[in-house]
Request: fold
Amino acid sequence: MSCNSCSSDINTVPKGCKSNGNCATGGCEKLSVFDWLSNMALPTGQEPLNIVEVRFKNGRKHFYRNVDNLQICIGDIIAVEGSPGHDIGTVSLTGELIRIQMKKKGVAFDSEEVKKIYRKATQKDIDIWKAAREKEYETQFKGREILSRLGIKMKLSDVEYQGDGNKATFYYTADDRVDFRQLIRDLASTFSIRVEMKQVGLRQEAARLGGVGSCGRELCCSTWLTDLRKVNTTAARYQQLSLNPQKLAGQCGKLKCCLNYELDTYLDALSDFPRQDIVLKTKKGEAVFIKMDIFKRVLWYTYKEDRNKWYKLTLENVKEIIDLNKNNKPVTSLEDYEFELLVENVVTYEDVVGQDSLTRFDAPKRKSNHKKNKNKNLKAPVQPTQVSGSGSSKNRKQRPPNRSANPNKNS
Reply:
């Protein structure tokens, strides 16, 4: 998984901190395991386990034996035994937690799969390893060109070079069995390396490539999910989900693994519900099941002959009707048991801090009537001023002074 400050690319290298897979938070590498036994001392007389877990490209991990008792810590780059030659990897886990991980993955301590560690990687080993990793994109591109030229129906999803650069593993997916003998000859002659073809499933391909799911998070299979269990449409039916392949399928084209996460909770909640094929017998007619809300414990039924209206019943009411039907006692109608929703009182909070409403800009602006009133006043007729004969100064119209004259001139 990636930390909040950076994210990993296809080579599990953080884009932000540029630390070759080891971030300051310790969470940039894929499928990382927290060693909660690191601060605990071993019992008296017990020797520490000499097996470590080594991580390679795209979260691939293997166990290796430290036969020379080297001082190895998490994050060290080491050279391990390959087939043939040697490979370069990063130590991802040490200590007694290895016993639990090996038991979880079904690997015995004396198994031939547990190979040995040669040495800590030198600067020359790291340079060769980086040079080999830089050729993977070009090798994958040319490999796809060779596939199209040979007309082989398979998809080359990834290429991984061994640490010494003498061997490359080509990961591919194919629907049918493929004869790639000629392909191996062409690849070996083109790149002058040993070629190993490894077929992976669609889920494993999505885990290697990575991506972001519809939930907005990184794919579970490429971050923390190690065992890819089988998922079928029964899990979607139990959770009352619509069987829409576009919504239920992940990036691998198969059903999403997250359909199994809440399946046990739904099965426990459904244990109290009656079967959906049970018909409710009433004097008005037989009623059949339509749908249900598992966690609100509500079911909807309708009459066979009149399906215009659905009747909302509680689980207790449905069980009561079924018990009466078992004794050959049909109920009067579903209307007597219809469940009415209780309108909950919406709690409103007063504005005690004097803050403005967030929706104050949503109301449309009112047009100003200033222009309208101004035009109206201009159109109104002007009443003439009447001058009384008494010669009162209040009723006489004042003549404005002559502004054109020179103000300095005496009148």
Residues 280-337 form one domain. The first helix runs from residue 97 to 105. The CA atoms of residues 152 and 180 lie 8 Å apart. The chain has ten helices and twelve strands.
